[in-house]
Design goal:
With about 325 residues, the chain is α+β, with helices and mostly antiparallel strands. The protein has 13 helices and four strands. α4 crosses α5, α4 packs parallel to α6 and α9 crosses α11.
Length: about 325
């Protein structure tokens, strides 16, 4: 009975050890040439670290000839880093003779960039197609250019360096500047490589996470004659201004004519008013005795004689 109880206790103890201590994982690490104590593996579990991730990363790195430390991998894991990705990036960099240590790789990973993709881009450059860039040469002809930018990752600038959007914006700006400085659009069409050479020598990759290897103009199309369009717009604007000024002068002339007519009508009204006073004055003269009947007839004869002479003169 005692032996059965003892055996049960031993079995229970073995099960507890196997449950809390990842013996199989520890044994696999030992066979792979990586030494991590069972206590260390147990402490990893208590700290919230997946021991299998750390051990597999150590085994992979050691087999590839890297010297990794469990504490560094564990710290990167606790910092929410991608431990397997970092180790694979270190292996790729080591095989490609790219200088990259664990601290730099971990910093790149924690910065939110794919460090493995960056290392692969350093080995195999990436081609970025720019959107159509519209520019106008000095002769007023619009050109629409597309470029292909070949870049590779700059490991040292991955932390804090600008991304692809900055490269595309700078290349587009350089193309606009190059086309805009050309005397004729024909010169650009004949030598499109002059644009790429000029843009490439401007150091557009400064402060970015990439190194520009080449800029090639993939296509150039002729757009509108912007100079002619601007001249037509200016002519139309000048015509509208001239029409507006002519309309203003016409309105002023009409107003002046209306004003003169009003003045003439006022003068005519005054004459009529004055003529209307004559009969009244004559009647008053008759009543007061200042005007006799013979005087009145002599005045009428003079008026008739005057009208006759005016009519003869008009004939």
């Amino acid at each position: 009975m005692n032996s059965i109880l003892l055996a049960a206790i031993i079995v229970a103890g073995i099960l507890v050890v196997l449950f809390f201590f990842p013996v199989a994982l520890w044994f696999q690490a030992v066979l792979s040439g990586v030494y991590v104590s069972l206590i260390h593996l147990l402490l990893m579990r208590w700290r919230g670290v997946n021991p299998r991730t750390i051990v597999y990363a150590l085994i992979t790195g050691t087999k590839a000839g890297l010297k990794l430390y469990a504490n560094e991998l564990e710290a990167h894991y606790l910092a929410k880093g991608n431990v397997p990705n970092v180790v694979m990036a270190l292996i790729s960099a080591n095989k490609a003779n790219i200088p990259l240590d664990f601290k730099m790789a971990a910093a790149i990973d924690l910065a939110g960039r794919d460090v493995l993709d960056a290392v692969q881009m350093s080995v195999n450059p990436k081609v970025i197609d720019t959107p159509p860039v519209t520019a106008v040469a000095k002769d007023g002809i619009q050109l629409i250019a597309k470029a292909r930018v070949t870049v590779r990752a700059n490991i040292k600038q991955l932390v804090g360096g600008a991304g692809e959007e900055t490269i595309l914006a700078r290349v587009g700006e350089g193309i606009v500047s190059s086309i805009g400085s050309a005397e004729s659009h024909k010169t650009v069409l004949e030598n499109p490589d002059s644009i790429s050479k000029l843009v490439l020598h401007k150091g557009l990759d400064a402060g970015t996470a990439f190194e520009i290897l080449s800029i090639d103009i993939a296509d150039i199309d002729v757009g509108k004659n912007i100079g002619a369009v601007l001249q037509m717009d200016q002519a139309e604007a000048d015509k509208n201004i001239a029409q507006a000024r002519a309309e203003e002068r016409r309105a002023m002339a009409v107003a002046l004519e209306q004003e003169k007519k009003a003045e003439a009508q006022q003068a005519r009204a005054k004459v009529i008013e004055a003529e209307a006073q004559v009969p009244l004055a004559m009647a008053e003269a008759f009543r007061t005795g200042n005007l006799g009947i013979m005087d009145y007839y002599r005045m009428k004869n003079m008026q008739a004689d005057t009208e006759m002479r005016e009519n003869i003169a008009k004939q």
